[in-house]
Amino acid sequence: MKKLLFLFCAAFIIIACGTSQSKSNGTATVDPSDYAKSITADELKTMLYTYASDDFEGRKTGEPGQKKAINFIKEHYVNTGIQSPIAEGDYFQEIPASYFNGKAKASENVLAYIKGSEKPNEIIVISAHLDHIGISGNGDINNGADDDGSGTVAILEIAEAFQKAVEKGHGPKRSILFLHVTGEEIGLFGSRYYTDVDPVFPLANTVANLNIDMIGRVDKKHENNENYLYLIGSDKLSTELHNISEAVNKKYINMTFDYTYNSDNDPNRFYYRSDHYNFAKNNIPVIFYFNGTHDDYHRPSDTPDKIHYDLLETRSRLIFYTAWELANREERIVVDKN
């Protein structure tokens, strides 16, 4: 009987130690699918129908509609309990009119972040541009539902998913900056201001940038295979980032990655045309997520009724999973190219 009691106690101690060890590992033992499920087509649709509505007047940099856009974004972060890295309650990185060289009035980036639990000084940046091209000369409003309303609402849902993990005690090991930049349509001004003038977090501590610009539609090339996404830049600076991206996709989503626009000879030069480039030029590994162009690009017909919301959900979850892996792996990814 004593022997049985001893074995029982020993087994209990082993199990207890194992449980304690599992808890101490934090996010390493957590299935992020539990949080990815909070990214839903319905929530993305609800937000985008507001963000890409006529009330926002095409979100032209420095204009009243763009001011509505930044307040919409701020309100989401306030309501979900996600803080600003600038100051308590201040989510706006103000950019003076002089910086835009006559192209726009004063404007703002919007910044929110979740502090890392173990490596808070290492930063993963998830970005999208909040602006669009405004109102055409004939009075038509360019709502920019795909460009880049889709990227904007994707970040808001991704941020909410990370915050749900925080609330369950599974916050990311590294800090995550949710960066909504202005002035992209007139020359990548907002992202350049962040990287070149006022990087709130040192660029040397910035591990990677995942940039989202148009992920809500399907281009003509993929009409018969909608489960795709163009990836640009993933292998330009870090072989490891590219391999992680591929592995995460195969594990969780298994969509087709199209690297056509990643070619150094791409005549469209998309690698240089969105906000990730201002990070890449500073030797920070990037991935640019993109669905390709379509007939409604930069036209009043880029409206929220044409977005594929189930696909937007899937693509947003993919980016969340990739950010989760980058934020929680033991070692920072290595830059092995330049």
TrEMBL record:
**CDD domains named among the record's database cross-references:** M28_like_PA (cd05660)
Ranges for domain Peptidase M28 come to 109-321
GO terms in the biological process aspect are: proteolysis
Q: Which GO terms describe its molecular function?
A: metalloexopeptidase activity
Query: Has the keyword Ribosomal protein been applied to this entry?
Result: no
Q: Which Pfam families match?
A: Peptidase_M28
Q: Which UniProt keywords apply?
A: Signal
What InterPro entries does the record tag this protein with? EF_Hand_1_Ca_BS, M28_fam, Peptidase_M28
Q: Which domain of life is it from?
A: Bacteria
Identify the stretch annotated as signal peptide in this record: 1-22
- Name by which UniProt lists this protein: M28 family peptidase
Q: Which organism is it from?
A: Snuella sedimenti
